[in-house]
Amino acid sequence: MRKFINVALFSIFPLMLLPGVQASEQHAAIAQQVINASGVVKQIDLVNKKITIAHEEIPALGWPAMTMRFTFTTQDDSINALKVGSPVSFSFIQQGNISLLQSINIG
What we know:
Elements: H1 2-31, E1 35-45, E2 50-55, E3 66-71, H2 77-80, E4 87-95, E5 98-106
Antiparallel strand pairs: 1-2, 1-4, 2-3, 4-5
């Protein structure tokens, strides 16, 4: 009987973990999804590589309109052209708690 219980428990345990693995894989896929949005530049922090944007609702993530900081990795012409108050369209990916800009354009 004890052997039966051990076999049953060890057979069921991996199945119990399966939904968590699937959820983790789905989260990773969503995290790398490129999201497009638009908004208005509220603050530019070139030293810390952050752009604060008041963006419109982002249905793909279920986010309401809000103001948040986005991180950029390369300071190129599109970043240098930004000014506080500029309307922008942009794309980003979500990496954990970091919203990483992929592109940003005025207008």
